[in-house]
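A favour, since you know our structure tokens better than I do. Go ahead and set the record down below.
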Amino acid sequence: MFDIRSSFEKEPVAYRTLSLRAFYRAFGHPSDVPGEYYQYLRNRISREDLLGNPRFRDQASRALEEAHCVELGITPAEEVDQKIAHALRGNMPWVLIGGPPCQVYSVVGRARWRRDNVEKFEGDHRHFLYKEYLRIIQKFQPAVFVMENVRGVLSSTHGGTPIFNRILDDLSNPSPGLHYEIRSFNCAGDARTANPMNFVVQSENHGLPQARHRVMLLGVREDIRARQHQVLARTGSVSVNQAIHDLPRVRSLLSRGKDSAESWQTIFDELLAVLSRTAPGTLSFVNQELELSMAGRAIPASAGGRYMRGLEARADRLPPSLREWLRDERLEGYIQHEARAHMRADLHRYLYSACFAKRHRRSPKVDEFPRELLPQHANVHSEKVPFRDRFRVQLENGPSTTVVSHISKDGHYYIHYDPAQCRSLTVREAARLQTFPDNYFFEGNRTEQYWQVGNAVPPFLARQVAGIVAELLQGGEQTAERAGEGSPTVAVEPLAKLPA
């Protein structure tokens, strides 16, 4: 659909992930990807052995030419421009896609910053990092651009002025004689005068197992007389259970004390003992839900690992289109499906939360926990406590909540719905909810892997957006040559913002 010519990522570990995926794509068709790639995923050869193999010199060179470890706004503009110009090589039309950093636009981020230091918040340069994106538009004039950001950008202000209005004005008229029509992926026509909420794309409406709401802008250069673009098809959501049901059942690791399957199993007995002593009214339903969860199944003995061989002989509940997108039989197993370690006290809370969610079809609030399970925080009983849902189960029969980078810090918001597994989600399960293909490998340690997953745009959604852009370019009359297979694309801050 598109030929990805250049991508920019500031974080070294995410850059390593991006360059590995560029290497995978350099072979053209998935069936042409060599077995050595899968050997690397199975941890049987090193990255150096893979990328340094003389047989793959051309693909490795192409991957390094595509992916760049660059921080926009910090790396000299001349260096960035040189890389883009080399990537485009005069080909037109081309597409720019990216998402400027969004910490100062997020509702939670704004609340924290303004509470701590209003002056520092107002002076934060990240309010205007989109200006670097704008600079690239001004200089290289893409036929189409796509910008993505958090929903909070719609309500963010700076100096009393709505940031979103400034962004729209700047993107519509980047420089004298250069104009773009700003459109929505949810409705046809120029969306500038429409309700700003029309720019919000809700992933769960488009075949994804996650309720992720993000602002997405489609900019079409004025001189391109393209026909009206298509909108994202509403196909309904996919449930968490559908998305991760086929993955092997694994147990958590214990972060303190001896870790073993036997030690881990005592978690169940300890919780039941606590409930029988302090909250006998809840003991019955917890016992019942545990029995139902473990009916005919052994408690998982394995905590998983970087690679687990063998495909589970369990019912595949994925919709056909998503199954085709995610699964890769050449893996002959699963990668990066390893549970993180948790303290016993947190595992008691996870176990209770999962049983509660099974019974009530919602996560418990903090004040619905038995007293002895409550965290030892001074404000846990305060009416002003900000996060009463600090332990959140990802309910099995609907889409997940938004997978964000906070998943790298702890698993409290990402508790598995199955009480018998008593843990938070693995990297692979989080990646499934984000719709990363199963053969997409995340470099770095496990914390860094979670962070990358949470910061990404879901690839299955990006694929749908790319289809709309491709059809728009191919179907309209243009002053430049017609777009077709191999239209160049440049991505900025891009991890998974393009088709995977």
